[in-house]
Amino acid sequence: MKCNQCPRHCLVDRQAGKIGYCGETDAVRIGRAALHPWEEPVISGKNGSGTVFFSGCNLRCIYCQNVSIANGQVGRAITIEELAEIFLQLQEEGAHNINLVTPSHYTEQIRIALELAKKKGLHIPIVYNTGGYDSVESLRTLEGLIDIYLPDMKYANPELAWQYSHAKDYLEINRLAIAEMVRQAGLPQIEASTGLMRKGVIVRHLVLPGSVKNSKKVLEYLINTYKNDIFVSIMNQYTPMEQVKEHPLLSRKVTKREYQKVIGYALELGLENGFLQEGETATASFIPEFSET
Fold first, then answer.
1. Could you tell me if 210 and 251 are in contact, meaning their C-beta atoms sit under 8 angstroms apart?
2. pLDDT digits (tens, 9 = 90+) for 174-185
3. How many other C-beta atoms lie within 10 A of the C-beta of residue 153?
């Protein structure tokens, strides 16, 4: 069966063991499944988010912070039944939600696993945590199963999308995908007693070095389009990794001035439902260890 799960439409027969653009066959591989404290407060809460990091990626950005897992260097193969049991185990450990990280190339397998787990008592919210390069058709197969969408909007500049993520059509695909996510999840619902999100959309934007104009255009689109119907998370945690140490821009961190310019512009646009990052987050200590646990 030729794969059409993501916008790459690489048409590789992953079921026959062939490897798609994502770097994976249709066998589910994960690099880590554990409670995770470093998401937005409405996701992590006190106990942590039950994150499942999937191996492979349909974007494979050149500056990737999780390069070992995105490139498939790390990952343990599991069955769909085992994936469902992992969801239930994380719930038993006290996870506030199940957080599916980089899921876009495994949508069909995830759908089946979620249906199995829900029949066995999975009841906490499901978070779809993605780079934002998602097929609307695939997202629709998940309708009714996902409570919170947590996509990136990385670019408003097509040239950056091509240079950094080899995705000329990222802008169009990303905007259509987020519109579908908002249609499915609806307005944000925050539980008053816990401060945790139960439903809704949080769009993340990672500020990149030397790309303040790109960030401003991203925020302009999001705030003008969705107003307070979504949350926007503006991140300063870009960490230069080994693979970009020679790059003229990506080899350095985002400066305080760059981040402040982006935040200032968001406030000028009227951002109210948002998350900012303070302090030193651009460090390898904020990147999980992918030990296949």
1. no
2. 999 999 999 999
3. 23
